[in-house]
């Protein structure tokens, strides 16, 4: 959600790509745990509030992390970001028209994806143990 709103990861490590020690998964995890998230000023107050809620480092205070799943869901649905813009009953009943519904000819139709990505050879990597 942060990436869609801000256009970048909340955990970007700027200027550290060349440093092997800082270009690792472990270092990324360290950044996630320790680095303070900066919310762009260009975002609305509601957008900033929901991002801060979802990205709260304390899981006990993080939005949607209530141990009771029903309460967690209600907490998210009642957040000011969603409360005024989404009719949850219509959404759950699949009665909401999507804002964009691309026409596709098959489940392998790639016409809506840039060839920069579709022409790229797959890079298969093994799962972490």
Automatic annotation (TrEMBL):
Keywords tagged on the record: ATP-binding, Kinase, Nucleotide-binding, Serine/threonine-protein kinase, Transferase
Domain of life: Eukaryota
Molecular function terms from GO: ATP binding; protein serine/threonine kinase activity
AGC-kinase C-terminal domain ranges (all copies): 84-129
InterPro entries attached to this UniProt entry: AGC-kinase_C (IPR000961), Kinase-like_dom_sf (IPR011009), Pkinase_C (IPR017892)
Record's keyword annotation contains Kinase: yes
Claim: Nucleotide-binding is one of the keywords in the record: yes
Name of the featured protein: AGC-kinase C-terminal domain-containing protein
Native organism: Onchocerca flexuosa
Classification lineage: Eukaryota, Metazoa, Ecdysozoa, Nematoda, Chromadorea
């Amino acid at each position: 959600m942060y990436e869609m709103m801000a256009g970048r990861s909340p955990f970007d490590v700027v200027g550290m790509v060349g440093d092997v020690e800082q270009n690792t998964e472990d270092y990324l995890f360290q950044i996630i745990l320790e680095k303070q998230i900066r919310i762009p000023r260009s975002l609305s107050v509601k957008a900033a509030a929901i991002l801060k809620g979802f990205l709260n480092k304390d899981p006990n205070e993080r939005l949607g992390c209530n141990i009771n799943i029903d309460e967690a869901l209600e907490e998210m649905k009642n957040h000011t970001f969603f409360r005024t813009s989404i009719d949850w009953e219509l959404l759950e009943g699949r009665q909401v028209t999507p804002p964009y519904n691309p026409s596709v000819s098959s489940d392998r139709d790639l016409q809506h994806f840039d060839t920069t990505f579709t022409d790229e050879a797959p890079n298969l990597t093994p799962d972490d143990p």
